[in-house]
Design a protein that fits this description.
Elements lengths: L1 H18 L5 H20 L30 H15 L1 H6 L7 E5 L6 H11 L3 E6 L10 H19 L4 E7 L2 H4 L9 H15 L8 E8 L7 H4 L4 E6 L5 H12 L10 H7 L5 H17 L7 H13 L9 H21 L4 E5 L9 E4 L10 H22 L7 H16 L15 H25 L1 H14 L1 E3 H17 L1
Parallel strand pairs: 1-4, 1-5, 2-3, 3-4
Antiparallel strand pairs: 6-7, 6-8
The site of adenosine-5'-triphosphate has 19 residues, from helix 5, helix 10 and helix 12.
Length: about 500
């Protein structure tokens, strides 16, 4: 408001000066320079930094509301974190044994797995104030600014703790790799070095006899990039892995995020959990939110299975696009996708959730598959099955049209990744090999052999199931979507007919 009035007055004054015949240019230049100086000092003083807990000036407490109960799954990580935090809670006992305080805990894991939630829950559990900043906020072009911001962050944590009568504070630094990356020789990294040195100095200054004991929790997706000075004992010496959730954890996360949402009785969270292998907590939260938005758009009172199904597609593949394919192209895409679907059902029965012909993200159509149970180990047969599914789109085009299109690039890239996996893990006919000693020629030959053999097997499955392909094609072109259940019914019907003949 005040800025608006000031801006209006200045503009008015400039117009008036111009009207009186004065040249306003020097004044405009003066104002620009003054603005730049004010912005520079504002940044230098570190006021630009965002400190969690300051949002909402009415907040009286800086203790986060998030508790460990609000985090789905992650049982092992929560347990390890709690054990470390108990050192902060039972201070006198720890002091009497002469145990030095834990200064830093490093949370590592893929994006969106709940590392920030963990840090907040840690502050809640230990009744500590919570301040946070992201590593990238410390990366400045001016030498010394990052270091000053680090000092300010720790000072702020102490100030807030004292103000709210607490004896401990959690300083959370997300994306620590932005400032804690490995230091190399040379002078070009002086700013990073100063920031990192300041962080190390602050951590070294944490002692057991302080009024306010600070615990630094940092998070990164790339632990291997961190400077060893950060990881040595006495600094971040507790490392906790926060993994992608398994099926049970996914169900728990879905339960947590649907607590406040009106669910239809037909919604089966167990089924959704098994269809969302590889989803992070953040993606699951987004999934429940998108499902609710679809229900609202449809004007329904409750969120149904169809809304969750559309939301899974959106989170996996992106928003629907307006790409308008010609009738001829739509048919080719349908045949390609049905090729994937038929082979997927034959090699991994029950794995197709849906075949869809609506364009999303980069794709013109797609098959949503799920592995049933979460898998972390694969046999040769399983990987060969995956390669067959990858090749089946093009093989179906070949079967129907006698030619191929350009739409299979991603399929081939994936197939080649699986083939490399077969060779490097000793599952190919080359036997157990040292990947470093296998020549490019050997790799190429073995790769081609595997590819050719699997291509033949894929084509023979597709020609066997041509009747199902034709029936499904009709439905898909009309309805745009074919559910996994309906598709399996058609496959089963053909198998029964064949058995009778
Ligand atoms: P990044 O590495 O990208 O910073 P992160 O690991 O810190 O991500 P969070 O910011 O903690 O992830 O999680 C983002 C959101 O995802 C949370 O606000 C929450 O809604 C949801 N979420 C993630 N993991 C969980 C979980 N285990 N339980 C419940 N919700 C979760």
């Amino acid at each position: 408001m005040a800025k608006g009035i000031l801006f209006g007055t200045l503009t008015g004054a400039l117009v008036f000066a111009f009207y009186l015949g004065y040249d306003p240019l020097p004044l405009v230049l003066l104002l620009i320079v003054a603005g730049a100086v004010v912005t520079f000092f504002h940044t230098r003083s570190g006021k630009g930094i965002s400190l969690a807990g300051t949002e909402g000036k009415k907040r009286t407490s800086c203790i986060p509301d998030t508790s460990f109960d609000d985090i789905g799954g992650q049982d092992r990580a929560k347990q390890e974190l709690k054990e470390a935090l108990d050192f902060l809670i039972h201070r006198t006992q720890i002091d009497s044994y002469g145990i030095r305080p834990i200064k830093g805990i490093l949370l590592t894991g893929p994006p969106g797995t709940g590392k920030t939630l963990m840090a907040k829950a840690a502050a809640h559990y230990t009744d500590s104030v919570f301040v946070s900043a992201s590593g990238s906020e410390f990366v400045e072009m001016y030498v010394g600014v990052g270091a000053q911001r680090i000092r300010q962050l720790f000072r702020e944590a102490r100030r807030r703790a004292k103000k709210s009568g607490k004896t401990s504070g959690v300083v959370f630094i997300d994306e620590i790799d932005a400032i804690g990356g490995r230091r190399e020789g040379g002078t070009q990294h002086r700013e990073y070095d100063q920031t990192l040195n300041q962080l190390l100095t602050e951590m070294d200054g944490i002692t057991s006899d302080q009024d306010v004991r600070i615990l630094v929790i940092a998070a990164t997706n790339r632990k291997e990039l961190l400077d060893s000075a950060l990881l040595r004992p006495g600094r971040f010496d507790r490392h906790i892995e926060v993994d992608l959730p398994d099926k049970r954890a996914r169900k728990q996360i879905l339960q947590l995020h649907t607590r406040n949402k009106p669910l239809d009785d037909r919604v089966d969270l167990e089924k959704i959990a098994s269809e969302t292998f590889g989803f992070s907590g953040a993606q699951l939260e987004s999934l429940t939110n998108e499902a609710a938005i679809y229900a609202l758009r449809d004007g329904e009172k409750t969120i149904g299975p169809q809304h969750f199904s559309a939301a899974i597609d959106k989170v996996m593949m992106g928003e629907k696009t307006d790409k308008k394919a010609s009738t001829e192209e739509r048919e080719r895409v349908a045949i390609h996708e049905l090729g994937h679907a038929i082979v997927a059902e034959v090699v991994h029965p029950g794995s197709v959730s849906q075949v869809s012909l609506s364009p999303r993200g980069q794709a013109l159509g797609y098959v949503r598959q799920h592995p049933g149970e979460d898998r972390y180990l694969y046999t040769r047969e399983h990987i060969e099955g995956r390669i067959m599914v990858c090749l089946a789109g093009t093989a179906a085009e070949q079967e129907f049209y006698g030619n191929r299109s350009t739409g299979a690039r991603n399929d081939f890239e994936q197939a080649h990744r699986y083939i490399r996996m077969l060779i490097q893990t000793g599952l190919s006919d080359l036997g157990i090999v040292d990947p470093e000693l296998v020549s490019k020629e050997q790799m190429r030959e073995e790769g081609m052999r595997i590819l050719k053999e699997i291509e033949e097997r894929t084509s023979s499955i597709l020609s066997r199931y041509r009747p199902v392909m034709e029936q499904s094609l009709e439905i898909l072109l009309k309805e745009e979507v074919l559910s996994g259940e309906e598709f399996r019914r058609l496959l089963k019907a053909q198998s029964l007919t064949e058995a009778r003949v």
